[in-house]
User: Fold these one by one.
Assistant:
Number 1:
Amino acid sequence: MLTGPALDNLAAAVARACRSGLDPDALRAAVLPRLRKVVPVDALWWAAADPATLLFTRAYREELPEESGPYFVENEFLHDDVNKWTDLARDASGVRTLMQATDGRPARSDRYRDIFAPLGLQDELRAVLRIRGVCWGYICLHREAAQAEFSAEEVRFVRRLAPHIAEELWRRLGYRESVAGAPLPEADQALAAEQTVSLPVQVNGKTRFTMQVPAGAGREQIEQLLTAHPDFALHTAGLEIQRVVIVPGRIASVVAR
């Protein structure tokens, strides 16, 4: 791993890229090659996040099967597991590896047993892209079983970069001032009284549309509304529905082939 001035120069280059007004795809293309110089990986996942719900959007993956997307949604919101985004976003560190979370026994994780082990992957480094306690995205890095675990130095480097990337994701929403100086959001009590909520719908791992559902609707009612929605037919035309994962109040994810 790089150390000293070489490491500092690389971190500074990432910080400059994050202040260059790049669109999300260009930002990712500028950051990932530099990150990989310090933290070699065999697979990765990167996504923006809705800070209110912590749902991931605009997901990008390398060497991970596209059909794994709905599984990760189900694992995150419906199953008990270690090192989940919803937990890490509230953790002071914001960065943790699978080996750390399982005390060196990755098979304790459903995610490892169901997805990573069959793909030959072992350690996972998850980082929330957070600034002032608000999460704007996620990065997940993976290494094959034959490679070394992520080191404490690599964890610190990723943590060092995370606020810079979070700042640029904030700016891409149209804000001009630094998030560090922006006022914290205030709760809108009127929203709590709404009778319907917006539910994002993913098809094969990509968000395709949103739909309005009654607040408090259960999975069965949501699935009925989903399959009757005109955009559902539009985005699944000619495909066979293989799986529908619904997390009430958060997301619906469809696998179709």
Note: The chain is about 35% helix and 25% strand.
Number 2:
Amino acid sequence: MDSDDQACRWRDVAAELTGKQVQYLEKLERRHGRNEALLLPIAREYAQSNLAERVLIGHVVEPPGATFVGGWEQDGAGEWFRDFDGESWSVGSVQVIICGRQSSDGRIFRNVSVYGAEDGMSELNAAELRQLITVLKDAEKLLETPSDQRPRQCGVPGHRNRVSHDIGIADQPHLRWCRRLA
């Protein structure tokens, strides 16, 4: 198909998608049937993001410290951006994640998200509370570290790792690396 606008099925634009994007759409297709009203807009969005990355903003490097980087999207004003996750820590049932947004000119905006238990209630004992305070201070330091001074998590091209700091009752956190698919 010559144009995404003429596509009737998501598979009409499959040649413009990455392997992971095709796999994801196939998974949705198995789950929801051949619902093109659901699948085609997702495929078009992926194709648009892929084209923008190849032509307009492919030169923008991923944010230092990023463990997951989403695809490029446009905001309401037509500006391109992509969201990313960075370091994360777990203390009891609380998760602290550095995440952010990168603009097409390379500017990076980071913030810290704090999540509790699924039921919205997180109970911490005194030791866990002290550890959470330490984690929040560590996250604050990372937020204040300039991007060019932040270490990369993995040197293997195309390989995205998620680094998380598991905080137990012990005083010293340790790093746990696990693969996270984009």
Note: The longest helix spans residues 36-55.
